[in-house]
Amino acid sequence: MAIAKAERLMNLALCLLNTGRPLSKRELRTSIEAYIEVTSEDAFNRTFERDKDDLRELGMVIETVESIDGEVGYLARRDRNQLPPVTLDAEEAAALGLVAKVWQQARLAGAASGALQKLRAAGIPLAEAEQDRYSALEPRVPAGEAAFEPLMIACRDRRVVTFAYRKSNAASPGSRQVEPWALECWHGNWYLAGWDRGRGAERVFRLSRIVGNVRSRVGEFTAPVPDQIAVREQVAGFAGEHATAQARIRLRVGAGYPLRARATRVTGRDAEWDDLEIPYGHGLDAWLAEFGPDVLVLEPAELRADVLDRLRAVAKG
């Protein structure tokens, strides 16, 4: 259905752009195959009005002209439906080139590459000499999770999604139904913020913990979308990023590099273990449990107990 509608809108746009005079609804109906297949006049009128409104919402300027005999016609003048010339200086063009390199692992990479080709064809200065000044910059935003693209589209289209999600302390995933708001990358991982219908509250989900396919559902959002969605701040809070207390842990040598990056102090104990001091806040127990036998919590006692409880829950299944 989506493909059929896209083709119908494209054909209507082409007809309105390539006519030298206004076309009536009767002429458009006999010119566009999708309209010919509509048997009912009322159904055609409803479809045509929706299509016309959709094209206008997309930015197309469609004029309505009434002839001397009272017949209404439609056309889209090319001079009113053309973007002004795109002009970029060398630094702006180089910035676009860097942005296009960001999406290396998602399907957006093809769109970004195609956009640069169009800019070059239009004469925009993307000279190699200018790009060389910025060649040391190689931005990367990893988007290898299979859930990334369907969630990105769901956030854009405001569509409810369902997926299986494995919590850090659970042996098996549980079903979630979410109204997706925004995606954001934090410390190399992608997170989704949205309204969890099952919990009746705002939640943040790590994409790497989504199991299987993400499926979209028909229906309106039931919760208002916030004007500002601070995904990073929420994840940082759950990870203890803003913590003021300190925890002492014992970490296996050669393991737990994210923990080492967070550590405020690292002391070598022996050939197998290091002692670390890391910020302690809400959610640290869940994060430490992910490292399994490579981490031993020394203090505080409540953190040690929470991590042990999580590991026992996983062991029991």
Describe this entry's structure for a reader.
With 317 residues, the protein is α+β, with helices and mostly antiparallel strands. It is 38% helix and 24% strand. It is built from twelve helices and twelve strands. The chain has helices spanning 2-17, 25-31, 33-36, 41-57, 90-102, 108-121, 128-132, 148-157, 231-238, 257-262, 284-289, 301-316; strands at 23-24, 63-66, 72-75, 160-165, 174-186, 189-196, 201-206, 210-217, 245-252, 265-268, 273-280, 295-299. The strands form three sheets. Strands 7-6-5-4-8 form a five-stranded antiparallel sheet. A hairpin with a 4-residue loop joins β10 and β11. α1 crosses α4 and α5 (90-102) packs antiparallel against α6. The chain starts with a helix and ends with a helix. Residues 127-131 have low confidence and may be disordered.
What are the salient characteristics of this protein?
317 residues; alpha+beta; 5-stranded antiparallel sheet; 4-stranded antiparallel sheet
Element layout with pairings:
Elements: H1 2-17, E1 23-24, H2 25-31, H3 33-36, H4 41-57, E2 63-66, E3 72-75, H5 90-102, H6 108-121, H7 128-132, H8 148-157, E4 160-165, E5 174-186, E6 189-196, E7 201-206, E8 210-217, H9 231-238, E9 245-252, H10 257-262, E10 265-268, E11 273-280, H11 284-289, E12 295-299, H12 301-316
Antiparallel strand pairs: 1-3, 2-3, 4-5, 4-8, 5-6, 6-7, 9-11, 9-12, 10-11
